[in-house]
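thread: overnight batch results

M.L. [08:02]
morning all. the overnight job finished for the chain we discussed friday. pasting input first so we're all looking at the same thing
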Amino acid sequence: MQRVQYLVGLLCMLFCWSCSSSHSSQYSFDQKYSATALKEDVQILEKILESNHPSLYWYTSKEKMDSSFAETIHSIHDSLNEVQFRNKIAALVSQIHCGHTVVLNSKEFAKASSKIRLPQFPLAIKVWDDSLVVTASVSPRATGIKRGSIITSINGRTNKEMLDSFYQYISIDGNVTNYKSQRVSNNFGAWYKNVFGLDSSYLIGYIDSTGVERKERLRSFKIPVLDKSKMDSLQKLLAGYKVPTKREIKKQRRNAQLSLKFDDTTSTAYMHVAGFSVNGLQKFMRKSFKQIEERRSKNLVIDLRDNGGGHLNNSIRLTKYLAKHPFKVADTIAAINRNFIDGKYIHQSFWFWFPLNFNTTKMDDGRYHYHRFETTVNQPFSKHHFDGKIYLLQGPSTFSAATVFTGCLKGQDNVQIIGEETGGGYYGNTAIHLPTIVLPNSKIQVTLPLFRVVLDKDRPKGRGVMPDIVVLPNSFAIKQGVDLKMEYIKAQVKR
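M.L. [08:03]
and the structure it wrote out:
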């Protein structure tokens, strides 16, 4: 069955490639922009951020940010291509220490990238601290490098040298550095290409199964081009199998994001919520907690390790099923301006101007507050409320509204948080509404969060939600395909 699914996916992928290749893109990756134009983009970005970013100086002083903008402008001596300029902007923006202020390539760059087959880095790699461990390989020639292999160097660069180079371009909330590790883990090859460029082969230093450090050269991987005869053969092979409809594919994707399973032998319900903006989430929560009550489950495990946030109202709703006491979302949710400077460079600025002007109240501090969230005391649900033992699984990808959720329940007497520090800030973040700045010359995109959110002024500032029980990854567990965090919880439940 898995082989059939793989072949179906391969056929769909190759079909998409063949369709996209018939349309040539006008974008050129070698295209360069004049120093004058790029300097203008930096100046426009600085002007907009100063006017509308409410946390520009939350972790970095105004003097330091002013100096960084000036240094960035001064460093542009000659014309640059988009990747070179994007890296400069990303390094600049990362100094704000706001995980929601993200730098993206232009839409034209992304569109052109989707239509060409560039060589790919041959390994998938999990990163934490200075550790690099292989999780998968697409290289048929790799002999000693397997899942679980510990990487020590790539093309002569040590792990620390590579990670330090990557991390300077990644924005984080405060000082939550493990979020950078997770971002690199999500696509190590893309970060390597972005910083060091494409290589035709990679000399990999690694530790083999006997503990000896060795080196092996792997060629880059490229998606094969199938000629007509091979495509016909693949279609014949799949002729007897039903290709899933769009509706079925949509359902499969939703099931991968939201799921509820029961283990009646331990009276435990296992819930997975991959995001708070998933379609059908409210219905899923209603049905799930009704089923949990009907099954009389005594333990509830909620997996939020891949939950990057989403709609705050959905985060609040899930909290209402679990909280023992009334709760507030935040002490402060405030913007610094109701209007946009150079709004023509902010995509669909009117739709963000509207809530700023009609949903906020100007307070004595001169800021515009989302007073509804600041003053509303949320009451826990009485219907289908869960009062048993709660285990929350979190990690570096637990971000934004997901961090609001775990942070709100932290310390409750029937809640235990297992895993790693969240990527989102425990004290607060800058989010709520997230328009996109499109710089006029390079078309580089920068996300602009409009509201500073202080979740609880008495919490420590600068870090994520800390787990009650820390469970870190290790190479042996990766090699064996063992989920250490889930295994810990299962052992706790059995005891």
